[in-house]
Automatic annotation (TrEMBL):
<dbReference type="InterPro" id="IPR023058">
    <property type="entry name" value="PPIase_PpiC_CS"/>
</dbReference>
<keyword id="KW-1133">Transmembrane helix</keyword>
<dbReference type="InterPro" id="IPR000297">
    <property type="entry name" value="PPIase_PpiC"/>
</dbReference>
<dbReference type="Pfam" id="PF13624">
    <property type="entry name" value="SurA_N_3"/>
</dbReference>
<keyword id="KW-0812">Transmembrane</keyword>
<dbReference type="InterPro" id="IPR046357">
    <property type="entry name" value="PPIase_dom_sf"/>
</dbReference>
<dbReference type="InterPro" id="IPR027304">
    <property type="entry name" value="Trigger_fact/SurA_dom_sf"/>
</dbReference>
<protein>
    <recommendedName>
        <fullName>peptidylprolyl isomerase</fullName>
        <ecNumber>5.2.1.8</ecNumber>
    </recommendedName>
</protein>
<dbReference type="GO" id="GO:0003755">
    <property type="term" value="F:peptidyl-prolyl cis-trans isomerase activity"/>
</dbReference>
<keyword id="KW-0472">Membrane</keyword>
<dbReference type="Pfam" id="PF13145">
    <property type="entry name" value="Rotamase_2"/>
</dbReference>
<keyword id="KW-0697">Rotamase</keyword>
<keyword id="KW-0413">Isomerase</keyword>
<feature type="transmembrane region" description="Helical">
    <location>
        <begin position="6"/>
        <end position="26"/>
    </location>
</feature>
<feature type="domain" description="PpiC">
    <location>
        <begin position="147"/>
        <end position="239"/>
    </location>
</feature>
<keyword id="KW-0732">Signal</keyword>
<dbReference type="InterPro" id="IPR050245">
    <property type="entry name" value="PrsA_foldase"/>
</dbReference>
Length: 290
């Protein structure tokens, strides 16, 4: 399961590179626009783009090629990801690993879907005895018993007066993320607009007063001031996940893929299929670079 978390983290980081390069490449008149000045010297958008391509171009193009390879071969082999399988995977990632809201829901879902398609491609011929699959299920039972979880953002302040003022400003239309970055005493979450990702109902790192308060909240709302051991909190509830206990049949295919991947001696990467997909790219063949 840790390998799955690492793979998804890598895929998410790839989004940043892809979106950054594509966004700037789509801007018109790149060669003439000035993006910075130093005294009388100008730095043009084209110079900037050239530097971005030098630093990130190869990795970004590789990510785009990998995406196309996965989609093409999945179509060739008639491999699909059902809505229920995608929802199950998303729920397990959120509840088990937590995610801070740095990406939109569509971007997150797209990367999880690509990850599932790649797993299916890599393991399409892998078979295991039923008893081995069941043994894996029972050995990793905690992964498939999902506790109720909450995606939260927080603003931590020193006094009730500060917390009460924060609630008033939210009611007047202020941005929760902006207020968190401006005044929250928890520097780590403040850097993410107060976002602390998903926390389970039994999370020992979150004070019980917060966990108790969010149980009766509706997604898209914030709390009244909540007293903590040291200070006060205002909490925003983004999303609530109900507890879910997955049966063996629910996760049987996921276990098959996971067992196969754990036995693989090659990297879990779409590049394993580049030759089959007849990839030709700007940076030449991988073999020529070795």
């Amino acid at each position: 399961m840790e390998k799955k978390q690492l793979r998804l983290a890598v895929l998410i980081l790839a989004i940043v590179n892809v979106l950054t390069i594509v966004f700037f490449l789509l801007k018109p008149d790149a060669s003439r626009e000035t993006v910075a000045t130093v005294g009388n010297d100008k730095i043009t958008r084209q110079e900037w783009l050239n530097e971005l391509e030098t630093r990130y171009g190869e990795d970004t193009l590789r990510d785009l090629v990998d995406k196309k390879v996965i989609e093409t071969l999945a179509s060739d082999y008639d491999i699909k990801v059902s809505d229920s399988d995608l929802e199950q995977e998303l729920t397990m990632y959120k509840a088990l690993y937590g995610t801070q809201g740095q990406f939109s829901g569509e971007e997150w879902e797209e990367q999880v879907k690509l990850s599932l398609l790649l797993e299916e491609l890599l393991t399409k011929d892998a078979m295991f005895p039923e008893e081995d699959l069941k043994e894996y299920y029972h050995q990793n039972r905690d992964f498939y018993d999902i506790q109720a979880s909450y995606h939260l953002s927080q603003i931590i302040v020193k006094s009730f007066a500060e917390a009460d003022q924060t609630v008033k400003e939210l009611e007047e239309g202020s941005s929760f993320a902006a207020l968190a970055m401006e005044r929250s005493r928890d520097e780590f979450s403040a850097n993410y607009g107060g976002d602390i990702g998903f926390v389970s109902e039994n999370d020992e790192t979150v004070e019980q007063t917060i966990l108790t308060a969010v149980q009766d909240m509706k997604p898209g709302t914030w709390s009244e001031p909540i007293q903590l051991d040291s200070g006060y909190a205002v909490i925003f509830l983004h999303e609530k996940l109900e507890g879910q206990e997955y049966s063996f049949e629910d996760v049987k295919e996921q276990i098959r893929r996971q067992m196969a991947i754990e036995q693989m001696e090659i990297p879990v990467s779409a590049q394993a299929f580049w030759e089959e997909a007849e990839v030709s790219w700007f940076y030449g063949n991988e073999e020529e670079k070795e």
